[in-house]
Write a structure and sequence with these properties.
α1 packs across α2. 28% of the residues lie in helices and 17% in strands. α7 links the parallel β9 and β10. The chain has a seven-stranded parallel β-sheet, with helices on one face. The chain has a three-stranded antiparallel β-sheet with strand order 4-8-7, with no helix packed on it. Bound molecules: 2-phosphoglycolic acid (PGA). The site of 2-phosphoglycolic acid (PGA) has 6 residues, from loops. 2-phosphoglycolic acid (PGA) binds next to loops.
Amino acid sequence: MIIKIFKNDEFASRAAADIIIAQINGKPNSVLGLPTGGTPVKTYQTLINACNEGRVSFKNVKTFNLDEYIGLHPTHEQSYRNFMNTNLFNHIDIVMENTHLPSEENAANYDEMINAAGGLDLQVLGIGGNGHIAFNEPGGAFDSLTHKQAIAEATIRDNARFFDGDIDKVPKFAVTLGIKGIMNARKIILLAFGKGKTQAIYDTVRGQVTTNVPSSILQLHPNCTLLIDEAAAGML
Ligand code: PGA
């Protein structure tokens, strides 16, 4: 694991965008795995600017998102489809048909769809305060493929901020790429910012590889870089 610590999320997000841009410029038909959440927003803004300035083109890029809530219509403000359209896809030159999110309908085929596209060249990850990656919550198997997942209580509480602070409005299930699908990516970058991620980053880097901390499996990935701010690195 390579660990890069930045003064703040601005610098880390710029570094993440630079890695994504270099990936696409090196291989214009790259297959990207993408996250939602608060963490990647600045990275996506940087990508939008780079695309508008002609420094990168997504014309031949395919994307596969990590996860999606069950029970929210794609047009729902908090659906991950809507998040991706609003925060990235609507503002870049990507072909919408080349953007994919998992769903109850395609879950059984999602890993096959990724393989058919050539496999993930670069997987971008956030991390939950409990060490989850995508919606792979503590205790889940390391050999999982795309599956329906009950969202952990801690994650529901974390995400309530996007639902007027009301945990009852947060969906209780999601479809998520499995740990195995994530580990199959040729390269992974994980972003983590702020004090809420300090323990999870410590456990990811220094802890045992255990299903209790899903992100700890990344210690075994051959090409994984953590881009984190000083607060998230606080216990390293
Ligand atoms: P966040 O979520 O980026 O909103 O902190 C990350 C995650 O839960 O994976």
